[in-house]
Amino acid sequence: MYDGQHQLVAELSPDSKGDFRVKVPGAADYSIVADTEDGHVAHWEIKTAEVAAPVVTATTETTPKLPQVSRPKVLR
User: Fold this and answer.
1) Going by C-beta distance under 8 Å and a sequence separation of 6 or more, which residues neighbour residue 51?
2) Which top-level group of life is the source organism from (predicted)?
3) What helix, strand, coil percent values describe the chain, rounded to 5?
């Protein structure tokens, strides 16, 4: 995995299922290059907005916190 200045920031290896995970050093543009060493090479570009976007999971609270307001006074 390379940063926007084409500097190597991580070497990735897939697990037994072919998946991989990486923690990026920060929000930036990255590119991943997969080289199968048999002549096949694939490139993926990851833009800063994708890195900076929050991850939403099923356990993430989605109910908005509303400010507390006082009840209106009833004039009689």
Assistant:
1) 24, 26, 27, 28, 30
2) Bacteria
3) 5, 20, 75
What is this structure's pTM? 0.57
CB 46 within 8 A of CB 19: no
* Contact between 32 and 3 (Cβ < 8 Å): no
pLDDT digits (tens, 9 = 90+) for 1-59: 998 899 998 888 888 888 888 887 888 899 988 888 888 888 889 888 887 765 555 55
Residue found under tokens 């199968």 = 36
pLDDT in tens, 56-69: 555 545 555 555 55
Extents of the domains making up the chain: 2-52
